[in-house]
């Protein structure tokens, strides 16, 4: 067996070999002898089946097994020659050449290794930044918002015209083409004007109406409305205003602080201000991180850290981009790509730069996570999906199952790892 192994770069290698017909025959003979000891063939006792019978019954399969064994041998010897440990390989080896002739088989196998990434200068790539400041006015405004949210709704004393921000207590019934429709009626429903809770235009037409008045509201359901029977339809609502409510006034003092800081001994307004200030600082810092610093840092890491990439991983990323693009194309456009290899290649190459950046980012984040000891377990991914689903009013278990069945969990997990890594780097910079 002639083997020639070549390390293309730090992440890719190719092993070429010539396997003689004599070698394949020897392997076929060996496999046939082994099988003769275990095979069940009618008319022969187990372990006593002649090799000739085995060859006749399993002929083609024996040859395939011999070729597979030869390929494994090619890979093992090639890796040894290149001094590459099998644990450093990523993905499956790719057979790029397998040409049979009467006296030999010529093969070429491509392998990819996990790239070695120099992370020595990573900290120098983290941008300088100043922590956001929070003013006393912002603290007071936030406490006022919290207090108003805590305040109960109370009926207004005088019968004035309603305005945005008021809560209307209404009876209503909806009609389409003069007929009441299912789910279009309620009694003593509390609707905050300006909340956008109802169909566009509904709340606006209640502004200026007083308690005990009856009005007719005309609206059009949006084209993308959840119900097909209502989407895009003109509707008329008969509405009676039973009452008007506003938020009661809340005194901002130590008593409010005690309500908002349960379990806090000697809670005071000053202590509440301190806690609110900390929360606002964290909110501003998180916004700065997510909107500006994290994207900038990741872009810098990809630009500054240079290393070889496994070719097949880049190709996979390009494939995904091409498939996504194809899903948006017409049948004629797809047909043109199938019939024109050059045009398909041009399309693939148009995604190469972005694919390289994406793959580089993934490997960099993975290397940093390992160095920093950052992990995201499946349980944490599940909790995140559950929380977001509940925030959106969805069934958490169904949401999780959907992501799992669609194969999205690894991508979500990687995104969470990336977020933790970049956050840790920025936090370390801010504390330096």
Automatic annotation (TrEMBL):
Keywords, ordered alphabetically: Cell cycle, Cell division, Chaperone, Cytoplasm, Isomerase, Rotamase
PPIase FKBP-type domain boundaries: 165-247
Reaction it catalyzes: [protein]-peptidylproline (omega=180) = [protein]-peptidylproline (omega=0)
Broad class of enzyme this protein falls into: isomerase
EC identifiers of the protein: 5.2.1.8
GO cellular component assignments: cytoplasm
Pfam families, per database record: FKBP_C (PF00254), Trigger_C (PF05698), Trigger_N (PF05697)
GO biological process: cell division; protein folding; protein transport
Localization, UniProt: Cytoplasm
Keyword Flavoprotein carried by entry: no
GO molecular function, one term: peptidyl-prolyl cis-trans isomerase activity
This protein's domain notes: Consists of 3 domains; the N-terminus binds the ribosome, the middle domain has PPIase activity, while the C-terminus has intrinsic chaperone activity on its own.
Alphabetical list of NCBIfam families matching this protein: tig
Function: Involved in protein export. Acts as a chaperone by maintaining the newly synthesized protein in an open conformation. Functions as a peptidyl-prolyl cis-trans isomerase.
Family classification: Belongs to the FKBP-type PPIase family. Tig subfamily.
Protein's name in the database: Trigger factor
Species whose genome carries this gene: Sulfurimonas sediminis
């Amino acid at each position: 067996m002639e083997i020639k192994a070549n390390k293309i770069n730090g992440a890719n290698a190719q092993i070429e070999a010539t396997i003689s017909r004599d070698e394949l025959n020897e392997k076929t003979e060996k496999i046939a002898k082994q099988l003769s000891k275990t095979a069940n063939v009618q008319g022969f006792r187990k372990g006593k089946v002649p090799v000739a019978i085995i060859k006749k019954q399993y002929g083609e399969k024996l040859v395939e097994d011999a070729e597979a064994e030869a390929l494994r041998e090619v890979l093992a010897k090639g890796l040894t020659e290149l001094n590459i440990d099998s644990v450093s390989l990523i993905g499956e080896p790719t057979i790029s050449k397998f040409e049979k002739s009467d006296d030999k088989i010529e093969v070429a196998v491509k392998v990819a290794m996990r790239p070695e990434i120099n992370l020595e200068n990573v900290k120098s790539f983290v941008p300088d930044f100043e922590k956001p400041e929070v003013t006393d006015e912002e603290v007071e405004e936030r406490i006022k918002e919290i207090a108003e949210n805590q305040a109960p709704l109370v009926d207004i004393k005088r019968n004035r015209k309603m305005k945005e921000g008021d809560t209307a207590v209404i009876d209503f019934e909806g009609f389409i083409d003069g007929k009441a429709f299912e789910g279009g009626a309620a009694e003593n429903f509390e609707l905050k004007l300006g909340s956008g809770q109802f169909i566009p235009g509904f709340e606006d037409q209640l502004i200026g109406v007083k308690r005990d008045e009856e009005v007719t509201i005309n609206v059009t359901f949006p084209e993308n409305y959840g119900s097909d029977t209502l989407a895009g339809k003109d509707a008329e609502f008969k509405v009676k205003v039973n009452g008007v409510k506003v938020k009661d006034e809340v005194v901002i003092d130590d008593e409010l602080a005690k309500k908002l800081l349960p379990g806090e001994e000697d809670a005071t307004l000053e202590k509440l201000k301190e806690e609110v200030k900390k929360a606002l600082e964290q909110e501003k810092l998180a916004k700065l991180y997510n909107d500006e610093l994290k994207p900038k840092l990741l872009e810098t890491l990809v630009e500054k850290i240079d290393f070889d990439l496994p070719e097949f991983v880049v190709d996979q990323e390009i494939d995904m981009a091409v498939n996504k693009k194809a899903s948006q194309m017409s049948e004629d456009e797809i047909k043109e790509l199938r019939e024109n290899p050059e045009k398909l290649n041009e399309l693939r190459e148009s995604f190469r730069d972005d694919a390289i950046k994406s793959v580089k980012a993934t490997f960099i984040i993975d290397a940093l996570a390992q160095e920093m000891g950052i992990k995201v377990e499946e349980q944490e991914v599940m909790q995140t999906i559950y929380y977001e689903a509940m925030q959106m009013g969805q069934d958490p278990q169904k949401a999780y199952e959907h992501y799992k069945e669609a194969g999205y969990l690894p991508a979500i997990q990687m995104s969470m790892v990336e977020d933790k890594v970049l956050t840790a780097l920025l936090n370390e910079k801010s504390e330096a």
